[in-house]
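Lab manual, section 2.4: Encoding a predicted structure.

Procedure: take the sequence of the chain (95 residues), apply the prediction step described in section 2.3, and record the output as structure tokens. A sample record is shown.
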Amino acid sequence: MKDKKIIVTGVTIFIIIATFPFWYNRGKAAPAPELELTPKAKTAKVCVRSTEYMRAEHMQLLDVWREAVVREGERIYVSPNGKEYNMSLSNTCLD
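Recorded output:
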């Protein structure tokens, strides 16, 4: 029981140090980033598939692309309209 003051003091100091970043930066959040399309995306009129399909199945299409590229080594995607696209997030979707 003699160490009770030391233990309480130690726990208090630990709580203050552990919570310091939270209460020190309270209300100082960084502004949200501004989103803008790349010049190529602004001029693009057509996506890989139709807008309705992309809204409903975008993540599934990316999963299919990943499987095809990683497991099967395929790099070219042929859309239903016959146009070929490179299966790459960086060079196709994000451009």
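Check your result against the sample. The helical segments are 4-24, 39-43, 51-72, 89-93.
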